[in-house]
Amino acid sequence: MTRSDKRVKTTNESLNNIKMLKLYSWTSIFSESIRQKRSEELYWLWKRFVNGIGVVSSLYFFPAILSAVVFASYIGAGNYLSLDIAFTVITLLNMIKDPLRALPLFLGSFLEFLVSMKRI
């Protein structure tokens, strides 16, 4: 957001002083400055997009693989997996599946909240 703010500030400054820019032939300097700030803003937007892809994929990948990891750890520790333990664990994992899916979204929203509060 700060990069976007910098770009918008430079754009507004150039639009407010358009007569002076034209008079002294500074249009190329300001357009290059705006272009540079926009490319930096797009770079960070792309990074945010890639992180969002990771979060969305984790929403579906981790809860699905959680039961396999839990059972493999339990058996790998030398325990015997009986039917009553397996059903109980599957039921508990299904109960916490939705909160696990909501956790990355909550963390993302919380970080956006912190950034917004800093801007205010």
If you had to describe this structure to a student in words, what would you say it looks like?
- The structure is a single chain.
- This protein is mainly α and 120 residues long.
- It has one domain (2-119).
- The chain is 91% helix and 0% strand.
- The protein has four helices and no strands.
- The longest helix is centred in the middle third of the chain and has 50 residues, at 27-76.
- It is rod-shaped, with a radius of gyration of 26 Å.
- The two termini are 12 Å apart.
- The relative contact order is 0.08.
- The mean pLDDT is 82.
What average pLDDT do the residues reach? 82
The fraction of residues in strands falls at under 5%
DSSP helix count? 4
Number of structural units classed as domains: 1
Largest sheet: none
Based on secondary structure, the structural category is: mainly alpha
C-alpha Rg (nearest Å): 26 Å
Number of strands: 0
Q: Measure the end-to-end span.
A: 12 Å
**Which descriptor suits the 3D outline?**
rod-shaped
Q: What letter string, H or E per element, gives the SSE order?
A: HHHH
- Ranges where pLDDT stays below 50 over 5 or more residues in a row are none
Q: Helical residue percent? A: over 70%
Q: In a nutshell, what does this entry contain?
A:
The chain is mostly helical. It is 91% helix and 0% strand.
Q: Keyphrases for this structure?
A:
120 residues, mainly alpha, 4 helices, 91% helix, rod-shaped
Fold topology:
Elements lengths: L1 H15 L1 H7 L2 H50 L6 H37 L1
